[in-house]
Amino acid sequence: SLTAAYAAAVVALLRLVLKKRAPRQVLCLLWLVVFARLLIPVSLESPLSIVPDALPQREPVQAESTAPPVLQTAPVQAPGPVQIQPAAQPGGANPVPVTQGGPALTTPEGAASAVPPPEAPVPFPWPTVLAGVWLAGALAMGGWGLASYLRLRRRLFDAIRAPDGAWEHPSVASPFILGVFRPKIYLPAGLVGQPRKFILCHERAHLRRRDHIIKPVCWIALALHWFNPAVWAAFILMSRDIEAACDEAVIRRLGPKVK
């Protein structure tokens, strides 16, 4: 999303420079690059790029391994020689003391048992909360778009087809195309004359350019990146450039006198 924001800013600057020097079709293709970047999670690396590095790479730093601290204990001193009196020898001989010089290890009295350290507090799950907010926003936008489409389809169920192939309905205030696989052109009822001719030519230019497929796909990218203001600006500017490109197609088809 951050890379696409950089790309959208570059295309917006090119739009200002090329607005009167290049056809709008070129700008529409540039916007498609931006939205393709939003939908494709794989980055294609190149030695030349207009996008700065978002996170500069750093050399890994190896932590110095430290030996565990050695417990310093007081030396255990062996007690003095232990004299053992053997049993009396027969014949009344004096017993000879036997000395045993082995050290005797004893546990110091009053040694306290090891106390476990207190547990660290559990951090707040920010990644989980942010992921939930993003998912809720994406589902809300997707649900709103689907509900709007179904509501419009239900409202136009009794539209009448005209001889020129367009569909008319009294509730239609502005011409548009509805449908992806079987698109239909809807016009306001009672539209006749030259305005109808120009509008039909404009809407058929949308169909030739596959705009009825491109815009829903770009809407999906907008729903996934709803948190990015640059994506909203890119979608609005792309929509304007698409309409201007269709106007240019009408002028090329009918001649410059119809401007």
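Second entry:
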Amino acid sequence: MAEKAFKTIDEQLDLLRSRGLTIDDESKAKQFLLYNNYYRISGYSLTLRSNDRFFDSASFQNIIDIYCFDQEFRHIILQYLEIIEVKFKSIYAYEFTKAHGPTGHLDKQNFTNEQKYNDIIDKSELQKNHRLPHEAYLKHYINDLQEDIPLWAYVDLFTISDISILFSITEKDIQDRIAKIYGLTVSKASLILSRYMHSMTIIRNLCAHGSRIFNRLFEQKPSLSKKDRALLRINADGTIDNSHFYGFLLIMRRLLSSNEFYDMKSSIIDLSNKYLFVRLDYYGFRDNWENDI
């Protein structure tokens, strides 16, 4: 198969024009292409074209608006994912150490899957050694006190994925106590919370690496309650849309306080008002969503 030929910025603009895209400010478009990569931004133009032909009303500014909206949208989501992550780590460390003491996390017998446990601890130990020269709390425990780091401090070495997996291999009674703090009291509460945190890991990784959320179809769909599924958008064919981002937002609502979620929701509304061209249904939002949640 022949390799794709290199194209200069001018040639990239010519290609876009040949496909019907209106470019009003060529200088701005050139800079945007140079700074953001033709291949990367092409995904943001999919809703503006069909069969590589842009709709008559489509402009380069439309692509910029969608791209910038998505970038700012990711930053909002990341801000509240950090709150979710820190809160979950804190609750986990509290409940686990209450049951097994400050350094019970170093005993593999306290977990239900030795391989997963070893993988997480090995990874965290590498992080510890890497961060030791720069982190005061690590120096304090390792160099000054010369003792094992208690979980309430050690938990900072875990990623959101690590803590999610660690929760899933923790004894069920501890899982249930943590789930109860989140208001989950049904028979499979711990499993539900584990799925919630896995979903947060998926979104966090995408947002942290600058991946497109706009019009993304998720293969790993969020696991939602019947009540939350009723809030999803209905597709033209009558099926429920659980393939876009909105389902993950409903999970975030479960993991944030009401005030935190209100603030996040307000930020999304403000962003939508800033970029009126960008349609939220491409994220799975339905009409009047702000009145539903």
